[in-house]
Design goal:
Two copies of one chain form a homodimer. By secondary structure, the first copy, chain A, is of the alpha+beta class. Chain A is built from 18 helices and twelve strands. Chain A has helices at 6-20, 53-59, 63-70, 77-95, 103-120, 171-178, 221-228, 245-250, 289-300, 318-333, 353-369, 389-396, 417-440, 442-445, 473-481, 509-516, 520-523, 539-555, and strands at 98-101, 131-135, 182-187, 199-200, 204-205, 235-239, 254-257, 281-286, 340-343, 453-457, 484-492, 527-534. In chain A, the strands form two sheets. Chain A has a ten-stranded mixed beta sheet with strand order 1-3-2-6-8-7-11-12-10-9, with helices on both faces. In chain A, strands 4-5 form a two-stranded antiparallel sheet. Chain A is globular. Chains A, B: Substrate binds at residues 193, 219, 240-243. Chains A, B: It comes from Monascus purpureus (Red mold).
């Protein structure tokens, strides 16, 4: 007799349905080696055995490289879609990174794109034939959005009789289709979205494919894991406290958290929708900076401000891109043309040895290039104003009981209108303070301008052990400021060099616990990244600088 | 024995102090004729008697015209400042429109500007030597900000020991000084700012100088009255539900309510600060469209986004200005190049006869030009979420009891975090609906584009009888949408043509009461204006179109 609660049964059924959506020929029959035997499943050491050379060629080309082939008719949309569907299916079997699989619809869409190209001899748009993965917050016709809630199964955002169920598409989805993208899967999230790891009762736990002892990060964790396994050339996540940047960093990817209002959030599911002290934003993740830029710029070309009331009328600004490229060029003869601040810690926590080494590598790179460096930061938070009510409502739909640490509110943290207004004022005051601090660096840089960017860690650790993520302090200050941040992958944790310091001085208890959590053996091989933070709406400049710095780190 | 409460005494003392700040030679000694004898005190029929021909010449030049003289050294900043100080002093004695007078500081500033010009042979900035008036929400060094609260006297926003008292300046004030503007007075507001008339215990009631039976409007009412009397060539008000547009319309002025994020609100006093469902915005008022544009564009040149965290990085976009001018040019040979919607009522209230006639005049003008026309609207509100607590706190400082209708919340309207979030979602849904409606007009206009603008009333009445303003429905929908709106003055109420219709059909009780409130005799001579509403961030386009339409109305 089955004594488990119904929501567990429902979750297991959905879990099985996801696996059942994988075509028989793409299933991995042989047992998958445990993490103890094979940490990294991303490359030739393992996943390649299931793929044809052609599939490897396609899936190991970056998004920009793919669109060069598909928009010129060299590669068909169908062969590209099939290759990524196959690799995504493998990825899911390895690390449980998918919530929805709709490969058949993708192939049909790809066929239509190929037919269009055959007839018109030109692509539908700049993303013609490019597979794009989506975090399970975006509504796509014909498939569910559960966002990890068992209670959302068979509903539209928890409402069973909502006519939009299975029909409605989010604005970003509409725009991606108009750009020629092929949609084929939706990726895993932590239930409530308020966590830096990815776990829910449906997919259970999404592991880090580069080191399967560790988490893929969150909340856009499925995106991070899938793209790291090259089951997707790029995709879209969301970020309210670090949810794009943490998985980007944990999976050795570039990831952009734009300022709010650039990528349309209209029609996407969300937690605590309407909370507008700190807005969640959408941004792309991909293995290369140029691919992140491609996705971002392509969406802007759709003029989202005519379709999303919260989007700002800011097209991609070529002049800023060109100015930034000119600065980089000039800096080759006069390195003081660019200057960066580096923040080694946030006054509360010091990063683990691999992350600290990553920061030093970036600093050395900038020093080699002659760009200057400084230091600072602070933080804040505001996701608990509803006292956790939004999450309680949606858990209540199924009765499920969350089993993972979530950054949601407690009853006693509930706020009223006047208290929320006070929080908004406090946030604005913090923003103003930080703005003036940034302005003041003009007196230090020698460029005549304030620093061009701030380099800092994304998290204290290089990926994280399960249950170990509890510090968004390195990312959430960017959300409070609504600044631009681009994650730049740097290196990998290496147990032979990243030894814990004998030093026993700590900022405090959080720092002590963080340092105690470092285990050189377990973290070995985990990705290390930094974020390049720019001011509000500086996406054009930061993407160009991130590409420059990323390339120079590899040259270094 | 004085039995009145202390706050009444304090208010009377402050009222007297404002009058005492007027130099003896500028005081009006002869009795001022009552409204029954002389409605309109704005022109040669009355105010000119107190001014020299040179003062009349200066004060009856618009802001752009003044800067042409001051930035080229033809007029000194001192003579311009003195002329406006004099006329502002007269204006205040006629209609009680000033909260703060600091003429001495203005003359000192003007002397410094003249010295700068003499030394460098160039102006400090585009507003060199231009007097600019400010609503009493802006902090200016050396003077108080009471915002009409007796309890704010001698404090900084109600805090007695705040070191910013008398020292701090709002960001806009800093930018205006950097542009070369001369600051000399702050204008009256309704206490709490939440009213469409201007009354508080300090200045008591600000009358409409064009028709002293009527209100000057609110909440930027002092601005409207002062500029109508040409005691200022232009100034800045704020608008959360119509507070720039209502006084602009009631005083026959152009007024711009920009989308939020263009003019910096940083460091200005406000009601319900931190309420961010609907943001109050700052915008200019002036007698000519080109002067409104001058003030708006000048502020943007200061790059407020580096000084106000809520400001958006959108400089004045010359390309949009040029495109709009090109559209207007093209429309001369092909009138269908531009199209406008006209809304005669909002489904709840029908405007009074003078306002309806104004709308017909605009429609005839557009028809004459060949530009098309349509219709629509809705509304909403969200200023009551704090249950009136913010106002109660500030009234509580002095114990004063408000005696005018205020649009503030009742205790039972207080909302919590989840309810505010739901309100934010509802607002966004309304915005999206309206956006799609606007998009859909592309199928009707014949231009291949949606309508270029929507023409509608600003209020049901042409100015308003005291205590009669209770309907922000014509303006507040623009705040909910965060759209751009420019008020265009059209004509004046005329008792010989604006007769009440015999028709007795009403939309409902509000409409019936509004229609019953019309009195052709009392309203005779009151200004009539319309607003030209454009989409979010379309300030460049709307300012150019407003200038075009305004000029054509005069030509018509």
């Amino acid at each position: 007799m089955d004594t488990q609660p119904e929501w567990r049964t429902l979750a297991a059924e959905k879990r099985q349905a996801i696996l059942d959506a994988i075509p028989q020929q793409w299933r991995i029959d042989a047992p998958i080696p445990p993490a103890e035997e094979l940490r990294d499943v991303t490359g030739s050491n393992y996943i390649h055995q299931f793929l044809t050379p052609r599939e490897i060629e396609i899936t190991e080309t970056d998004a920009l490289g793919i669109t060069e082939q598909t928009t010129s008719g060299n590669w068909t949309a169908v062969e590209v879609a099939e290759a990524f569907c196959h690799r995504a299916a493998l990825a899911h079997q390895l690390v449980a990174c998918l919530h929805e699989i709709f490969f058949d619809a993708a192939i049909e869409d790809a066929k239509r794109l190929d037919a269009y190209y055959a007839k018109h001899r030109k692509p539908v748009g700049p993303l013609h034939g490019l597979p794009v993965s989506l975090k399970d917050q975006f509504h796509v016709k014909g498939v569910e959005t559960t966002m990890g809630y068992v209670g959302w199964m068979g509903t539209f955002q928890g409402r069973r009789d909502d006519l939009r169920r299975g029909e409605f598409e989010s604005e970003l989805v509409r725009e991606l289709r108009a750009l020629g993208a092929v949609l084929y899967c939706k990726t895993s999230v932590p239930v409530t979205l308020m966590a830096g790891e990815t776990a829910n009762h449906i997919i259970q736990y999404t592991w880090n494919p580069k080191n399967r002892h560790l988490s893929c990060g969150g909340s856009s964790g499925g995106e991070g894991a899938l793209i790291a396994l090259k089951g997707s050339p790029g995709g879209f996540g969301t970020d309210i406290g670090g949810s794009i940047r943490i998985p980007a960093a944990f999976n050795f990817l570039y990831g952009l958290r734009p300022s709010s209002g650039r990528i349309p959030y209209q029609g996407a599911a969300n937690s605590m929708d309407g909370q507008n002290t700190i807005l969640s934003v959408i941004g792309p993740l991909a293995p290369t900076a140029r691919s992140v830029k491609l996705l971002f710029k392509a969406v802007l070309s759709q003029r989202p401000w005519y379709h999303d009331p919260l989007a700002v009328e800011l097209p991609w600004r070529d002049d800023i891109e060109q100015e930034t490229r000119a600065l980089i060029e000039e800096s080759k003869s006069d390195p003081t043309k660019l200057s960066f601040a580096i923040m080694y810690h946030n006054g509360l926590t010091r990063p683990h040895p691999p992350v600290a080494r990553g920061l030093r590598m970036v600093e050395r790179t900038l020093e080699r290039l002659g760009h200057k460096a400084n230091a600072d930061l602070q933080q804040s938070k505001a996701f608990t104003a509803d006292g956790g009510e939004d999450a309680r409502i949606h858990f209540g739909l199924s009765g499920e009981v969350p089993e993972w640490p979530l950054l949601i509110g407690r009853e006693d943290q509930k706020k009223n209108a006047l208290e929320i207004a006070a929080l908004n004022v406090k946030k604005r005051e913090y923003q103003k303070l930080y703005m003036e601090y940034w302005n003041s660096t003009a007196e230090l840089t020698g460029t005549g301008r304030p620093v061009d960017g701030l380099i800092c860690a994304v998290a204290p650790s290089a990926a994280v052990t399960p249950g170990g993520f509890n510090d968004v302090g390195f990312t959430s200050f960017v959300n409070v400021l609504d600044y631009t941040s681009v994650v730049i992958p740097v290196t990998y944790a290496d147990k032979t060099v990243d030894v814990a310091p004998s030093n026993n001085e700590f900022f405090g208890e959080v720092d002590r616990r963080t340092q105690a959590g470092y285990d050189a053996e377990i973290y070995d091989g985990a990705p290390v990244a930094v974020q390049l933070v720019g001011r509000r709406f500086q996406e054009e400049k930061m993407l160009v600088l991130a590409e420059h710095i990323g390339a120079e780190i590899r040259n270094g």
